[in-house]
Design brief:
78 residues, flat, Reverse transcriptase zinc-binding domain-containing protein
Length: 78
């Protein structure tokens, strides 16, 4: 009985599988960050005391939250 092949086909399969799992992990990580609110928007940075104010740099009157950034900010919805 022969053991598993260590041929070129198996090597290519392993490389392809690793790259696919890495891409999946990056997507999963990005979704988790969005759901948890961990981002570089001003409101989050202000909570961490890394920004002097929580306001959107374009609006200057509304906190830059994920909802504001994606749906309300006039910079992206003009």
């Amino acid at each position: 009985m022969w053991g598993p092949s260590t041929g070129e086909d198996e090597c290519c399969y392993k490389i392809q599988t690793v790259s696919q799992s890495w891409e999946g992990a990056q997507g999963t990580s990005a979704i988790a960050c969005l759901r948890l609110g961990h981002n570089t928007l001003s409101a989050h940075l202000h909570r961490l005391r890394l920004s002097h104010d929580p306001f959107c740099p374009w609006c200057r009157t509304t906190p830059e939250t994920m909802e504001h950034f994606l749906f309300q900010c006039p910079r992206f919805h003009s």
